[in-house]
Design a protein that fits this description.
By secondary structure, the chain is mainly α. The protein is built from 10 helices and 3 strands; from the N terminus they run αβααββααααααα. It has 2 domains: 96 residues, Orthogonal Bundle (Arc Repressor Mutant, subunit A); 131 residues, GntR ligand-binding domain-like (Four Helix Bundle (Hemerythrin (Met), subunit A), Up-down Bundle). The chain has a 3-stranded antiparallel beta sheet with strand order 1-3-2. The longest helix is centred in the middle third of the chain and has 22 residues. It starts with a helix and ends in a 5-residue tail after the last helix.
Length: 244
């Protein structure tokens, strides 16, 4: 049975949201980059309305700024905002660490170990993927608490911290050191909640220390070139079920 255009719109909108979010977190789209609705719509073959809805969702997560009469752009937090976001993230992830201490299952540990292997490989060859996996590590821990609320807020805060590091971090520094993630897991396996909370705090404070209080220049980007791989991936996925 044919699928109507109205039935496909939510999926197309979700695909654009995911593609833009992925590009922002991986720092393919840098803070301050303009996000014109018409260009994005042309790239993905959808209307401006669908693009606008995706941008609104990203704005609600703090990843995009909707500027009156100037269009949307990737968010570019000030340093004061950045420090507040990190402080809130540290407090929240301390709670995650306390919740998980002594409660990691064998399946959890296998999942985390596999994730660390991926992080290690990416840190040696793919900086963009390394950043994305570092963010996912923290979201993964939040998901293991079983709390949808914790997962949601850790996801939003860690993604916003990625924007901050794109603006302020030293060139070529990674957001999260794999060795620090290993220390966090070791602490979580213990029955010492304070040790686990401290490991998480030390790690995130180290992330802040690896950032410089210096704004990197915001450069113009070719939005079509940046989004082309994401649009092509989406087209392949839509064709796959029919084998075309």
């Amino acid at each position: 049975m044919a699928i109507s255009e109205s039935e496909t719109k939510p999926d197309r909108g979700s695909a654009i949201y995911r593609a833009l979010r992925h590009a922002i977190i991986a720092q393919a789209l840098m803070p301050g980059a303009k996000l014109p609705e018409d260009t994005i719509g042309e790239q993905f073959g959808v209307s401006r309305t669908i693009v606008r809805n995706a941008l609104a969702k990203l704005a609600a997560e703090g990843l995009v700024e909707l500027r009156r009469n100037r269009g949307a752009a990737v968010a570019a937090p000030s340093w004061d905002e950045a420090r507040d976001i990190f402080d809130i993230r540290i407090a929240l992830e301390q709670f995650v660490a306390l919740r998980l201490t002594g409660h990691l299952t064998a399946e959890h540990l296998r999942t985390l170990t596999a994730h660390l292997h991926k992080e290690q490989r990416a840190s040696e060859s793919d900086p963009a993927l390394s950043i994305e996996l570092a963010t996912e590590f923290h979201i993964l821990l939040a998901a293991m608490t079983g709390s949808a609320v914790l997962k949601r807020y850790v996801s939003e805060l860690s993604s916003r911290c990625g924007l901050i590091l794109a603006l302020y971090s030293r060139p070529h520094s990674s957001e999260c050191a794999v060795s620090e993630h290993r220390l966090i897991i070791a602490a979580l396996k213990s029955n010492d909640g304070q040790r686990a909370a401290k490991a998480m705090t030390d790690h995130l404070e180290a992330v802040v220390q690896r950032a410089l209080i210096k704004l990197h220049p915001i450069r113009n980007q070719d939005i079509r070139a940046v989004l082309a791989p994401y649009a092509e991936t989406g087209r392949r996925k839509r064709k796959a079920p029919n084998g075309r």
